Amino acid sequence: MEPSLADNLTTWRRHLHANPGLTLHEGETAAFVVQKLKELGVTEIAEGVGGHGVVATLRRGGTGGNRAVGLRGDMDALPIQEVAEDLPWHSRTPGVMHACGHDGHTTALLGAAALLQADPDWSGTVHLVFQPAEEGGRGAESMIREGLFQRFPMERIFGWHNWPGLDAGTIAVHDGPVMAAGARFAIRFEGHAGHAALPHLTRDPVIAAGHAITAAQSIVARELDPISGGVVSITIMEAGEAQNQIPASATLKGTARWLREEDGVVIEAALRRIADGIGATFGVTGSLEFRRGVPVTVNHAAERDLAAAAAAAGGAVRRDLPPAMTGEDFSWFLREVPGAFVWIGNGPAEGGRELHNPHYDFNDAILPRASGFLAEVAKRALAGG
């Protein structure tokens, strides 16, 4: 990659970091993307796809003219207050920051556009999918509902995520699941309020909630196959307003994750039994709200191998990493068309450089590697690899 492009990518990424767009509020980010695409000579640009989504299309005739491939980068930031530590490009928006590296993902896709525009050695169609609302905003689903794959037909789609703790620039390609499916849940117990000194005149939902916390932790240990992965974490407990009152209700909230779709069914059923059974045991009414999020992110075999070959053409590749229990909106795209999702190492994670940490910052040094990978995997897909 020419040094001038690498410098531009760093400048663009730092601009996006300083001007983050929260999930569902990525309008300024989308406008910046469109501006840079036009400066790169891209003329076929669709805006407002699934919210603030942008899809840019590159076309070139030749032997691969009938083939089409998609490349995806997500754009949104998180509701986290950045701990800037005098970072010159720190977030200028209070309470919002790019704590997951989507500023880098967006920039790398712009870099891929630049590389493909300058490279005559390919033919076919490349759709550059700049996705909004990845962080719980169901942006992939919105783009699909608005006809992403009908308006921009593609045979395959590829995406990536930066990965702190993995050597900078090393690309990890998973043979099985890459990232987990997830759900948010709430268990609510309705009892009868009363004076804390007269508990026999109440039906105490807090006692039920306490037992439910313990019971929920047995689901992964005793309901799931030990070889498979799963998480049930209760993270919020809401109950009561006065220290001398037994409240009328208590609510537990949390998240569940799994790597096999059948395990999600098991977890939901177990949580429902706990809500109903413990409620009955303590004379209160238990109920469960279980809201599923993204499905499991699983690479398609042929696209996985193609991604690994493209990654190896530019640097180090790892094929031995376990999946993560974090979720990824890209999984919805993989349910529509074949594709693959890889990790690109962001370098050391120490010192608060983990994802979703207020100290996090994307490693600009990996931008050329990420852009090069995206361009290379697109070329190989169009060549029939």
Primary descriptors:
single chain, 385 residues, alpha/beta, eight-stranded mixed sheet, four-stranded antiparallel sheet, 16 strands, 34% helix, elongated
Write a concise synopsis of the structure shown.
Helices cover 34% and strands 25% of the residues.
How does the SSE layout of this entry go?
Blueprint: H1 3-18, H2 27-39, E1 44-49, E2 53-60, E3 68-74, H3 102-118, E4 124-131, H4 139-145, H5 148-151, E5 156-164, E6 171-172, E7 177-179, E8 181-190, E9 194-195, H6 205-216, H7 218-223, E10 230-239, E11 245-246, E12 249-258, H8 261-281, E13 285-292, E14 297-298, H9 301-312, E15 317-318, H10 330-334, E16 339-347, H11 367-382
Parallel strand pairs: 3-4, 3-5, 5-16, 6-15
Antiparallel strand pairs: 1-2, 2-4, 6-16, 7-14, 8-12, 8-13, 9-11, 10-12
Helix pairs in contact: 1-3, 3-11, 6-8, 9-11
Question: What does this entry look like structurally?
Answer:
The strands form four sheets. An eight-stranded mixed beta sheet has the order 1-2-4-3-5-16-6-15, with helices on both faces. The longest helix has 21 residues, at 261-281. β1 and β2 (53-60) form a beta hairpin. The radius of gyration is 23 Å and the shape is elongated. α1 (3-18) runs antiparallel to α3 (102-118). The protein has helices spanning 3-18, 27-39, 102-118, 139-145, 148-151, 205-216, 218-223, 261-281, 301-312, 330-334, 367-382, and strands at residues 44-49, 53-60, 68-74, 124-131, 156-164, 171-172, 177-179, 181-190, 194-195, 230-239, 245-246, 249-258, 285-292, 297-298, 317-318, 339-347. The model has no long low-confidence stretch (mean pLDDT 96). With 385 residues, the chain is α/β, with parallel strands linked by helices. The protein has eleven helices and 16 strands. The two termini are 23 Å apart.
